[in-house]
Amino acid sequence: MGQPDNNDYTPPLPFEGFAEALLRTFEIALPEPERFLTPDDLDQFLSEQRLSAPPAGRRDVRTVQALREELRTLFDETRDEKERIEQLNGMLSRSPVTLTLLPGAALALSATHSESLVQRVQTASAVNLASAIARYGFSRLRVCAADPCRDAFIDTSKKGARRFCGNRCANRWHVATFRERKKRDGPAN
Ligand SMILES: [Zn+2]
Question: What is the pLDDT of residues 54-81, one digit of tens each?
Answer without folding.
Answer: 999 999 999 999 999 999 999 998 999 9
